[in-house]
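Pipeline run #58 for the internal structure catalog. This entry was flagged by the ingest filter as a single-chain record with no existing model, so it goes straight to prediction. Upstream metadata was stripped on purpose; only the residue string is passed forward. Reviewer on rotation: M.T. Logging verbosity set to normal.
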Amino acid sequence: MKKSLKPMAMLLTVLLCICMSGCDISKSSAVLLDYSTGLGDDLQYNNKLYGMNCSNDIEGADPGCFFVSKDEDPEYGGYYYMYKSGSTADEGVDLIDDFCISNNIATTAYRCYRSKDLFTWELAGAMHDGYSLVVKKDDWAEKCFWAPEVIRNSKDGKYYLYFSASAYENWGVSCMSSSKNEFDRLYLGVAVSDAPIGPFYVISDKDSATGKNMPTINFHTGCNTEYNWAAIDVSPFFDDNGDLYLYFNKHTDDHYDAMMGVWGMKMKSAFEPDYSTVSYLAAPGKETASSVPGKIDEVKKGNPYYDATESGINEAPFMLKHNNKYYLTYASNGYGQSGYSVHQAISDKPLEGFKKPSMEEGNPVLNGSAHGYMNGTAHHAIVKNGDEYWIVYHRHNSLQGVSDGWDRSICADRVNFVTNSEGTDVLSANGPSKCLQWLPCSVSGYENLAKSADITVNTGEGKEYLTDGILPFYTVTQKKVYSEKKKDVVISLKWDKPVSVSSVMLYNAYDIYSAYSEIAKIRFKLAKNENKKYEKYKYAVIKNVEFPKQYWNSETEEYIQCSPAVAEFNSLTVTSLEITINSDDRLIKEDKMGNPLTSLNLSELVVLGEASK
């Protein structure tokens, strides 16, 4: 866990007098502030204010993540809980200690972590080494413990873990596959616990002939298929009326590859499916998909879907509801590919009518390979904090992807609902990011005061985009920026009453050729009688806030898009502030023809201060 860092320099006692024409010097002088840039060379930062991907990695894949409030669970609430693929069986670990033997435990699976802020995680699973699922020797699941997700059921107060695993090859139950292909033996499983950290215990049906445990979800029997119908990546979703749905991916097997894609169904209970509702929702490379409910061998695939970022796989679904529309997010491409990315399909109903928006209108939601510094960004969950949504996903640790090893790590970014040109709200992520992000107010206690300020700009267009919370990573958001072509820019913020300010973050352009190299000046108007140490000064000034070298390479022009320059300082009480960027302060001074570059795009302005109580 990162330690909280104080700014690298405190307010200086050295004063810079700035005379203003026609004013008394005692009223027009300013104190010159030193400041920290928020981010040290070793990627240390103040984790009370910020978070950052790739600085505090939790290695792992296929994260399932949800939030438990204190109201829901006084003992375990107040945390995000995250679970990742893996088990002692998959890692080749034999559980031969006395505890496991005496409790008939064959395998433990799914390490559980918890976090207050989605960036600093601690191992929390109830079992040894942080695992959360207990698999006993008489359970059906053997290996391939993938893609766990957990929900809390408000009806009984219990936690349910949904997962996929491969059954034993010779389990001896007639309605379960005995194929030598472990993919043919993939089933969806359900487990239950009284706590989000576990231990979770597998819920099973009993085979009447043998008395052996079986999965409670079995499409072979439920939908009358000739062979087992392999499924993985199960994701639960509670609708507003309390109805529970499961969404999952049809995995490759020896018999039903033509049905691969995303499916869904309604549940009768936390572990009992309504097989009559099983429906095809998304097909690889197709704009739409459908089926006769309950008839999984009767599918229809719509028109070709022309999106260069989507390939032959749709998997890892997640469901979200917004303004009475259902947002089915899913991973496209194979998990080993650099272009493994998050896409969306939208419908008015939970089990039919999903349509994928075009690249111009909203896809992809998240794609690392387009940006050059992160890839394989897909299997995900979306969580809400206050009014903000965050997407938690895994990435490849290497830019060479799985050709350089299978290691992956967990990241998080904001994701926004953005209105596209057709008037439809679509999801679009502020990332993948590899820079400082401001934490949610509910986590840090610091709010973005820029949103409550009266903002004026001396020139340019799009000042409304300075505080919309959106970073322009994708086609649907690329025009949602403030822009100016030639002039110096002065952004002024004014508040109705004094506010306490501790940090200013100005997010740069997506395009390096429209990016600034430094903020020339930030000038704060100090509130009277609020800053006793500086009561004879009217202003405080910060000068020459450089865009951090960690985010760009001047020789190669490698660039972390939409990253911020940050000024962090001891709290000041102010009534206004002014930010100046000079037209000649550009990261790239000339184009390839030698013409000077003065165009400026700004993605977002964040002013962090203590939230009002």
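catalog note: The mean pLDDT is 92.
catalog note: The CA atoms of residues 86 and 110 lie 5 Å apart.
status: ready for reviewer M.T.
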